[in-house]
Write a structure and sequence with these properties.
The complex is a heterodimer of chains A (about 450) and B (about 350). Chain A has about 450 residues and is α+β, with helices and mostly antiparallel strands. Chain A has helices spanning about 315-320, 320-330, 375, 385-390, 395-410, 410-450; strands at about 15-20, 25-30, 40-45, 55-60, 65-70, 75-80, 85-90, 105-110, 125-130, 135-140, 155-160, 165-170, 175-185, 185-190, 195-200, 215-225, 225-235, 240-245, 255, 260-265, 275-280, 285, 290-295, 305-310, 335-340, 345-350, 355-360, 365-370. Chain A starts with 14 loop residues before the first strand and ends with a helix. Chain B has about 350 residues and is of the alpha+beta class. The chains are: A alpha+beta (about 450), B alpha+beta (about 350). At the A-B interface, loops of A face helix 4 and strand 11 of B. Chain A: One of its GO terms (biological process) is ribosomal large subunit biogenesis.
Chain lengths: ~450, ~350
């Protein structure tokens, strides 16, 4: 008999993700079933138009008033609500740019989670970076969607690089430092508050043939959420490098991955494994402490991978204390990614099994998780929570949890304090872990040199 | 076997009887099942086989007869014709593919089309201008193939490759306002790959080229005129196929001169793209029964009751070759730093019934 069905996907747990494509459409993908659901496109925001091609996205993923910023090709930045897609503010990025060329697109965008105390509540702060290296931080206030909202204060602008093209821009978890790198641009790390460059990397030495590979960073990510000192970068010459600011300016560790340029790098929340995707659709996870491959992600991949996103640690869980966060670790480990062949694929990080593949009709540029999906729809389906609580304890706890969440929504300030507290707590723990990693990295260095 | 037999002989008579009876039942089973392969005697086997074959033939004939009779009766009585059975082929049992363009997603498809690299050519804002070049070393069939390509594609210009890098050639083509570059790659004096690069920012497509038959080797071939040809693109169904089809479309001018009666066909079947180049002619022919047997139906109105009927005749001219997609790369030629939209990988070939175009 002919096999008329394709290989089945295992199905994925309830989650919600937003995808952004070449035509400027934002599609909402949701899996709603409690156990093994099929992810589907449930909503589509915007009209297809090639000038609205999405260049960069950023999201503040929180319970109350989550925000989503989208930078488009026509140099407009939109701030949307990731819940229903309502445009809250639009600014055109023409003001800060002296060069009005086609190439000077926005490549980096970051929406700050922490808010300035002196600014009114209905505003947000944005960091943008263009290809030519013009970075700026501005605060915008939400006006009516019809009007173009304006910046409150004059934007702080500075130039990140003198030449070359910026390709990657990342802000660390505590939002104090930003990282820039690109074609012909070594990785710079800037202190956002003082606008000073605190570190920049140094290219690796020439190889034994005296050939120098030109600098071309394509992607980068900070390894841990509250540590700005370690980051992983992928280069066009299919190399993945680990840098440590506190150690040296050259990469602490570097290894090759296949033969096409690395296009996306994402970190895991465990702080040592990274996911690497390249230009011909191969993806694998690596243990960055040793540089060993943990395993590849297969599943009929044929297009370049543009972004990899790991499901964040669920905020629902994090607000409930450490205990749950540890549990979430084992339960909810998923990975989203997107590719140029216009598929969104979802893998399990533990088993590396393809959970779901969604065809999105256009070339997808970015993908983001909305991890508060169930919190908002507690009445409908509080599946994720259930998933967790079923494992931990009986249902009454769940109710408690949701009640707690509501409290948090009401008094955000208190929550912030609490989260800060917990962050500090984590930091102290994380420090130990970091040191461990560093010590483990030390012996791996000479090995690498030998290999070369 | 001998040893076994001896053992049998040694054993009780009853047992041997049982065995023989067993054998008997087995033979009857054989006759029931009619499987000649179980017979060891060749003569007997072939006899049974022939018998079986004959029986099958008769059955088939009888079946066809009843079918024809049913059809005839239905025609006479003016009833509905009996359903025609469709044979199961690899194409129509193709694995389900969600990327196949369906009615209903036109909006996004057309918006995507307008946004892609070929839309300016296909909307006749530019006339396509093609640069044809080769790999570094080529001889024998390579130049012959190129001269035929030049006659197939209007506004194509051949440039000697020299020792230029392909990236330099792309730059050159950008400056000279070419719209595409075709690189014919030759291996062992035989063209074996075709690289089509869209300029200035179009995709790069890498095809494997096989089964090349040049004009000379085609029997009764014609020589094409310099009219702009008509283009037939068949079976490019998926998004990927659509894109490849549009790329091929952008090589040809969008205003064919029907006077020239030239057709260039790219026919996709099971992911192989067959290239054919024909000249067609309509002829008035006196036929007793008006039967329209034209495959490329340029006119659907040949239901003439009169004895004079128009038939279309084809004459093949120009090369004949087969293409298979290897990779589709985003942007112009860049093997090291390129970003692929689609690459053929061995792991994708797990089913004969999965097609990508």
């Amino acid at each position: 008999m002919p096999r008329t069905t394709t290989v089945e996907c295992a199905g994925c747990p309830p989650l919600r993700a937003l995808t952004f494509d070449v035509l400027g459409l934002i599609k909402v993908v949701e899996a709603r079933d409690k156990q093994r659901g099929v992810a589907q496109v449930v909503e589509r925001w915007g009209e297809p138009e090639s000038s609205k091609c999405v260049m960069a996205v950023s999201m503040v993923d929180r319970n109350s008033q989550p925000l989503l910023a989208v930078a488009r090709k026509n140099k407009k930045i939109e701030v949307l609500s990731p819940v229903n897609g309502d445009i809250q503010a639009t600014i055109s990025d023409t003001s800060g740019l002296d060069v009005q060329s086609e190439e000077n697109n926005i490549v980096g965008l970051h929406l700050f989670e922490k808010q300035n105390s002196e600014l009114p509540s209905r505003c947000c702060t944005l960091l943008t970076c263009t290809t030519k290296g013009n970075a700026s931080i501005r605060s915008i206030e939400f006006a009516d969607s019809s009007k173009e909202s304006s910046c409150i204060d004059s934007p702080k602008t500075w130039n990140v690089c003198s030449g070359g093209n910026i390709l990657c821009c990342k802000v660390d978890g505590n939002e104090n430092f930003a990282l820039f790198g690109g074609k012909g641009v070594e990785i710079n790390i800037w202190d956002i508050d003082n606008l000073t460059k605190i570190w920049n990397s140094k290219p690796p030495p020439k190889n034994n043939l005296g050939i120098f590979t030109p600098t071309w960073f394509t992607s980068a990510t900070f390894l841990m959420k509250d540590d700005h000192r370690k980051f992983v970068a992928g280069t066009n010459s299919h190399q993945v490098r680990l840098y440590d600011i506190s150690a040296q300016r050259r990469p602490v560790l570097s290894f090759d991955f296949r033969e096409t340029p690395i296009k996306a790098v994402a970190e895991d929340i465990d702080g040592y494994s990274v996911y690497v995707g390249n230009g011909s659709g191969d993806m694998a996870s690596f243990d960055i402490r040793t540089g060993k491959m943990l395993g590849g992600f297969s599943g009929k991949c044929s297009g370049s991978i543009r972004s990899i996103v790991r499901h964040p640690q669920l905020p629902v869980v994090a607000s409930c204390g450490e205990r749950y966060s540890i549990i979430s670790f084992h339960l909810v480990c998923f990975l989203w990614m997107k590719r140029l062949d216009s598929y969104l694929r979802l893998w399990d990080t533990k088993t590396r099994q393809l959970l779901s593949a969604i065809f999105l009709k256009q070339h997808v540029v970015h993908v983001l998780f909305d991890s508060n999906f169930d919190v908002k729809e507690t009445d409908l389906l509080s599946c994720k929570e259930q998933n967790l609580t079923e494992e931990v304890e009986a249902t009454p706890l769940k109710r408690k949890k949701s009640a707690r969440n509501k409290e948090h929504i009401q008094d955000g300030s208190e929550r912030k304090k609490r989260s800060k507290h917990s962050k500090e707590h984590k930091k102290s723990e994380g420090n130990d872990g970091r040191e461990k990693i560093a010590s483990r990295n030390e012996p791996s260095k000479p090995k690498l040199k030998k290999k070369k | 076997m001998g040893g076994k037999r001896k053992k049998n002989d040694d054993s009780d008579v009853e047992e041997s009887k049982a065995v023989s009876s067993n054998k008997k039942t087995r033979t009857t089973e054989k006759k029931d099942q009619l499987r000649p392969s179980m017979i060891k005697n060749k003569e007997k086997r072939s006899e049974v086989h022939a018998k079986l074959k004959h029986q099958k033939k008769l059955d088939k004939r009888a079946k066809a007869k009843t079918r024809d009779a049913a059809l005839k009766r239905a025609l006479e009585l003016g009833e509905e014709l009996p359903e025609k059975k469709v044979p199961r082929t690899i194409e129509n049992t193709r694995e389900f593919d969600e990327t196949v363009c369906k009615p209903g997603d036109e909006e996004e498809l057309f918006a995507g089309n307008d946004a892609d690299e070929f839309s300016s050519i296909l909307h006749k804002q530019y006339t396509p201008k093609i640069l044809i070049t080769t790999c570094r070393f080529h001889s024998t069939r390579g130049p012959a193939f190129i001269s035929e390509l030049l006659s197939v594609i209007p506004n194509a210009h051949y440039y000697k490759r020299g020792t230029y890098d392909l990236k330099k050639i792309v730059e050159y083509a950008k400056n000279k306002e070419f719209t595409s570059i075709i690189v014919v790659h030759t291996n062992r004096r035989e063209p074996d790959a075709l690289l089509i690069i869209g300029v200035p920012n179009g995709p790069t497509v890498h095809f494997k080229l096989s089964k090349l038959v040049l004009r000379q080797d085609i029997k009764n071939h014609g020589t094409p005129t310099s009219h702009k040809p008509e283009l037939v693109l068949n079976n490019f169904t998926t998004r990927l196929g659509h894109r490849v089809g549009r790329l091929i479309q952008s090589l040809f001018p969008q205003d064919p001169e029907f006077k020239g009666r030239r057709v260039v066909t790219f026919h996709n079947q099971r992911d192989f793209i067959f290239f054919r180049h024909h000249r067609y002619i309509f002829e008035n022919k006196e036929v007793k029964k008006p039967e329209s047997r034209d495959k490329k139906d340029k006119d659907g109105k040949n239901e003439n009751v009169t004895e004079q009927t128009t038939i279309a005749r084809l004459q093949e001219c120009g090369p004949r070759f087969t293409l298979k997609l290897i990779s589709l790369q985003h942007g112009t030629f860049d093997t090291k730093g390129g970003e692929y939209e689609w690459v053929h990988k061995a792991e994708m070939d797990t089913s004969r019934r999965r097609f990508f175009l």
